[in-house]
Amino acid sequence: MKKIIIIVCIFFSVALGQKSELKNVKVLPFTEKREVVKYMKSVVAKELGVKCSFCHNMTDYASDEKDHKKVAREMMVMTMNANKTMKNLNFHDISCWVCHRGNKHPDHPPKKK
Ligand code: HEC
Ligand code: HEC
User: Fold this and answer.
1) Is the pLDDT of residue 64 over 70?
2) What is the 71 CA–ligand 1 centroid distance (Å)?
3) pLDDT of the residue at 111
4) C-alpha 100: how far from its chain's center?
5) What share of the chain in percent tops pLDDT 70?
């Protein structure tokens, strides 16, 4: 009995701990900070060729004060929606790279004459 109570307590402290870890994650499907940081490093910053400070106030990652971060959140939604289509077609997922290719601003198609 004692054992069960301890296990239940550990479970709740872990679950609550994880919940309070992320403060302002509205669209990404992650529940743990390390998953968010991994995605930020290996996808977002890398595929746009920028540092974390391009989107974040370095003393408060949860803050939405930078417009780049707000645009990026919409871009994440766009990419997730595109991936629903890709999944239906049985194609690979896309990521920011497909358009950005290491740049803040993707190339636009040449202007029509
Ligand atoms: C191009 C913009 C952009 C860059 C660059 C970026 N992030 Fe983010 N980051 C976001 C957005 C947008 C969110 C919120 C996502 C959401 O609402 O689901 C976020 C959320 C986070 C959070 C969650 C904060 C919280 O508790 O709400 C952390 C931590 C974080 N980023 C760390 C990093 C780190 C570390 C780097 C650099 C390796 C980085 N980010 C680079 C756009 C960016
Ligand atoms: C379907 C193509 C496409 C995908 C996929 C895409 N983007 Fe973009 N993104 C664009 C285009 C095009 C622009 C520039 C708009 C312009 O120049 O008028 C842009 C602009 C941005 C900007 C604004 C840069 C600035 O200087 O203000 C951010 C931030 C951004 N994208 C983040 C992301 C992130 C993060 C992802 C992946 C989650 C992503 N984008 C995926 C096409 C895309």
Assistant:
1) yes
2) 12
3) 85
4) 16
5) 82
To test the pocket of ligand 2, the residue of 75, 77, 85, 103 to mutate (highest count of ligand atoms within 8 Å of its CB) is 75
More confident residue, 5 or 25: 25
Q: Whose CA is nearest to atom 28 of ligand 2?
A: 72
pLDDT at 39 over 80: yes
Residue the block writes with tokens 């939604």: 77
Spatial contact of 31 and 85, defined as CB atoms under 8 Å apart? no
Q: Which two tokens stand for residue 96?
A: 């920011």
**C-beta contacts of 70-77 below 8 A and 24+ residues apart:** 72/44, 73/26, 73/27, 76/27, 76/28, 77/27
